[in-house]
Fold this protein.
Amino acid sequence: MIRKPSYIYPLLKLTANNIRRHPVINLISISIIAVAMLLLSLYFLAYNNASRIVSAWRSDLRVIVYLDDDIAADRLAELKNYCRDLDEVVSLEYVSREQALENFRKTLDEDEDFLKDLPENPLPASLELVLDAEVSSLGDVEHLARQLERQVGVAEVVYGSRWLRHLFSLLRVVKYFGFLFAAFLSLMTVFIVASTIRLSLFSRREIIRVLHLVGASRWFVAMPYLLEGIFQGTLASLLALGLAYGGFLSFRDWLHAQVPQWPIAASLKFFSPVFIVVFLCLGTGLGIAGFLLSSRWNFRD
Amino acid sequence: MIRVFHLNKSYNYPDMVLKDVSFEVKRGEFVYLSGPSGAGKTTLFRLLFADLSPDSGQIVVNGIDVSRARVKSIARLRRRMGIVFQDYKLIPSYTVFDNVALALEVTGYPRSRIQKTVWKVLKTVGIERQINRFPPQLSGGEQQRVAIARALVNSPDLILADEPTGNLDYEIADEIMQIFNTINERGTTVVMVTHNRSLLQRFKKKVFYLDRGQLQAYVWPDAC
Ligand SMILES: Nc1ncnc2c1ncn2[C@@H]1O[C@H](COP(=O)(O)OP(=O)(O)OP(=O)(O)O)[C@@H](O)[C@H]1O
Ligand SMILES: [Mg+2]
């Protein structure tokens, strides 16, 4: 009777043997990888939350174009089209003079009586442009403002929230720094995995020799080390996620206890399930990469 | 089964260990490879399963040109032969059972049948009581029988054995020879390295006699 070859059990046995033979080295290696992955996950956690909260304030990224009082209707239409066609502009809203007054009145509440004394409406009409959040550098906004000011029919251009724009540029820097940071930590992880596998290979060279002599194929010999890499990467990223979750919960509680009136603590979020899966895959992938690196060092013959 | 043409081998050129060695072993034969210590028997033996590569010449085993074959077909060839090494090559951290099972596991042998197959072969070589011991806890003769069991467990087409009775006493050596005889009668080719003359006398087979790297035309043991 022909059955499917069963390699799974012997390979797992070899892998388990390898890991059991060097519990301390594996433990150290997994801990170091876990710390690297923890740093990575804390960074992502901070970045994700910060950018989500800041994005909620994105509506303040407006540029207000005040119009001349005597602007002609067709010039207004032209100006609207011109603004809409700009790459940086996400949306546009026209606020007429009457509406501006209405809005103003609402903000005044009880004090609106004094408006009755006004001979005429002093407020100009305006176009309110909402910019793409990607346009976060102050220089870009200033440039845009000057460009708009030169248009016929435009009286003045105002753009608010300098600090918010600074925050956005800061976030962007943090994002790029994060990529570098992630790349560095990943590289470190790959090297750690590769080194432990190399050590494991070295201490098992007698067994590897016997495996070759009894006719084990190359992949059969190599597979336990691939599994070891996967084991280290996956376990370390699980550990890192667990620690990050613990840290996240206590940070949120601490923040809530410090400033209970601040709603930010409640709006902090941990990773989404998709992100968690991606993160675990990253750990596994780094383990595999570590194996590949060590096999470049070792399995060449 | 085995064909060797004009084989030359040196470890430190130009000190030739094997000089222009040619011979043939037919399918189903049982032959001895004999000669004094240091004659190059183990060297020739290791060339047969590509553990060494020759300086020149050709080795064909089971239709495969061993010195030119790729790693993959060498591995496949080794899975179909049973090799008993002069120094056993057992894994010290594996039990007797695991050592023997390893030869099955690398072939993808069904796990459910490994236990039974290993038990049977250990019983054949008379080492079943030590199944859960580790090689360092065994005597030389016991280790040798584990090594033989590992070579037999795959029911190979070809058995290569380097001094398989070297550490065994008279009676056990005879038992092992009986085992080799039995599997040879079932069609397995056997090549056995030995310098034990009394063995050559008691179990008469074709002998290839190697002396200082040169193979004498094969002789029958009465002539040595
Ligand atoms: N790895 C090696 N490197 C260098 N020289 C070697 C090596 N292996 C064997 N030799 C030399 O090659 C010669 C043949 O050795 P080999 O092991 O083939 O002899 P043998 O016939 O098997 O001897 P024995 O009966 O003692 O096992 C010897 O002179 C030995 O010193
Ligand atoms: Mg020898």
